[in-house]
Write a structure and sequence with these properties.
Layout (H helix, E strand, L loop, with lengths): L3 E6 L2 E6 L9 H16 L5 E6 L3 E4 L4 H13 L14 H11 L3 E6 L1 E4 H9 L2 E5 L5 E2 L13 H9 L1 H10 L2 E2 L1 H7 L4 E3 L3 H13 L3 H14 L4 H16 L2 H11 L10
Parallel strand pairs: 2-3, 3-5, 4-6, 5-7, 6-8, 7-10
Antiparallel strand pairs: 1-2, 8-9
Length: about 270
């Protein structure tokens, strides 16, 4: 069974993730996310991608712990030991999340329900997160089964909401509701009814933005927290000039100067 159903509407892809009965992520999910990213990379007309869950109330429950337990047993039987002085290579899923953060395409998580562990980490790798209103769990509770977030959670969540709140969530294995997630800045919006329609609306808006400007903004902001301020400011000055000479930017500036456009116009 194909887990990710893809629909294309102009410059926007909608990816619905379905893996019944529990809605877990597994190696097949990883492969299909990678294939989706290959499709995005091969088509310059695609500007935005919306991820959502195909099962009612489930975005991605979490990674299949049965699969993790089997892998753990094999590594333990081989006497394998691990230390940060010798890094473990990226898995296919790690590569997917890195590709998303480095891509000039906008990725939006339209959370329609529960998202924990690896599913929540997919949302964290997206550029924008919105959620359906409701009483369900979002977070990284891996410590409750003796694990830790292994696909970017310990790194991306503190960058998003600050070290204090992120540490409290992860160390306690505590999940939050959509309302708490909004209050803490994990998501930017709660939607009363059709979260997919709202995600598509945002994606379509982003797809109409000047491509070079969006690409450079994402690059600067994604890399900024990992580098000294001076380096980020230098790149910002350089990429500001890069967009100034872009044809679309020059046309829009001309329109503003003759009062055919207002700087607040979002299209």
């Amino acid at each position: 069974m194909t887990q990710i159903e893809i629909e294309q509407n102009g410059a926007v892809l909608l990816a619905k993730i379905t893996n019944p009965p529990q809605g877990f992520m597994d190696p097949e999910t990883e492969m299909e996310v990678a294939a989706l990213l290959d499709r995005v990379d091969a088509n310059e007309d695609i500007r935005s991608v919306v991820f959502t869950g195909g099962m009612p109330g489930v975005f991605i429950r979490h990674y299949n712990v049965g699969v993790l337990a089997e892998t753990a047993a094999k590594m333990s039987a081989r006497g394998m030991q691990f230390d940060t002085s010798r890094s473990v290579p990226e898995s296919p899923y790690h590569v997917c999340l890195r590709r998303m953060t480095e891509s000039p395409v906008a990725f939006i998580a339209a959370l329609n329900g529960i998202a924990m562990g690896g599913g929540f980490e997919l949302a964290l790798a997206c550029d924008i997160r919105i959620a359906l209103d409701g009483d369900y769990d979002l977070g990284l509770p891996e410590i409750n089964v003796g694990l830790l977030p292994g696909a970017g959670g310990t790194q991306r969540l503190p960058r998003l909401i600050g070290e204090g709140r992120a540490f409290e969530m992860i160390a306690r294995g505590r999940t939050v509701s959509p309302a708490e997630a909004l209050e803490w800045g994990i998501i930017s919006e709660i939607v009363d009814r059709d979260v997919v329609a709202r995600g598509m609306e945002i994606a379509e808006e982003l797809s109409r933005k000047p491509m070079r400007a969006f690409r450079n903004i994402k690059q600067l902001m994604r890399r900024g927290l990992d580098r000294p301020l001076e380096e980020g400011l230098a790149d910002e000055r350089t990429l500001f000039c890069d967009v100034m000479v872009d044809g679309e930017a020059m046309e829009r500036m001309s329109e503003l100067n003759v009062r055919q456009r207002d700087i607040r116009d979002r299209d």
